Task: structure prediction
Amino acid sequence: MSSQAEPNHPIDGVPTEYELDLAEDKLHEECGVFGVYGQQDAAALVALGLHALQHRGQEAAGIVTYDGTRFHAEKRVGLVGDHFSKEQTIARVPGSCGIGHVRYSTTGATALRNVQPMFAELSSGGFAICHNGNLTNAMSLRREMIKDGAIFHSSSDTEVILQLVAQSRKARFAERFIEALHSIEGAYSLVAMTNKKLIGVRDPYGIRPLVLGDLNGSPVLASETCALDIIGATFVREVENGELIIISEDGIESLRPFPPHPKRPCIFEYIYFSRPDSILGGKSVYECRKRFGYELAKESPVEADVVIPVPDSGVPSAVGFAQESGIPFELGIIRNHYVGRTFIEPTQQIRALGVKLKHNANRGAIEGKRIVLVDDSIVRGTTSIKIVQMMYDAGATEVHMRVASPPIKHPDFYGIDTPNPKALIAATHTIEEIAAHIGVTSLAYISIDGVYRAMGYEGRDNANPQFTDHSFTGDYPTALTDMEGPHVPKQLSLLAEAG
Result:
């Protein structure tokens, strides 16, 4: 294909090149959670932990602490460093126990009333909670509670948990919390706090991650190990699927309130969401992504001169592809790290230049060469069109694309923002059609068995898969009570406005 190709001819149901902001052509994880018990200036440690988890949500952040007498809360729209690096902000949340949350909203406006942690005064005292994931029966529960007279102050499904705890008639707080957990469905890692306890819990399948750490004898809970690293805490272990941990001055108590379920963590944590320097399930996320590249090179070899990652998430897989294939690795695309999601593109002329706000071609590594572009995923394909054309404009003679995840064909209901299924380009079009649409010489995805081989298995066990991989297979591990089926037209959002 020549550099003069015009690859972005429309496909039915797929947005054209300029219809969508580039940021919307990636999947987004909604939340990160963090908590620490028994450390003076807990808020400063929580802020550092949230800073390490910023990749899990960039729209808002919040911290709640307890100082032995009262609870304190600070919530802000924007990045953690924009607000919680200020000494006067941290001073407003004193205490030796604290929890925090970062989030990315899937739909609806960012509003402080939706920013977590959520807090309420219950009959047993103050209770704060934050949530990574998505409940698949929150709307049904919410409707029933409103009929019974409950008053909701946010549109977050996390408030449903808070209301369930408030309505329980069990005697002990732990029993009330467990009763609430038995009413909810979906994916969740929760970090909560009372005036005496720090609490962590993971859903029965362990879809969303949660780890336990130790900082000089003080327990720490976090979505990922990279948040432990930033405060100098040591990794103790993962919170197990279906496990409830209660931390108090008496120590750490582990409860198992659910019947046993097979562990099925979300495979997208390894493919895209978690930070490369985190350890999940005893595996280095970075090494897993390299192995995706190894498998991709074995499955879909190509004659080319250079391997180029689509930064930043495609870098580890591109390294693996280059090492296995023997094709040299080059940084052929340079990313501008100082452009955020809120950059204003006021005119069509400026919008047409949008990809160069974040990426620019390194012509010296590209011109006159056959290149292999390696990316972690293709969602709508709109960004791929722009990147591919950029490679041709920089003088590439051939552009082969290799994708380190299988085709995304199904929406997610567990805390990942996926577009309308009709906008998932792989849901209704063949790989050949996608290749023609984005303008590449060739296109190949890693197979689902290749993903499992990269994770250390012989392939996918279709009867008992080791991961939650519904975006590729349509195999949802939990009930989807609020959905009409796996192809509902609108993603259930953690922050969806209630109708």
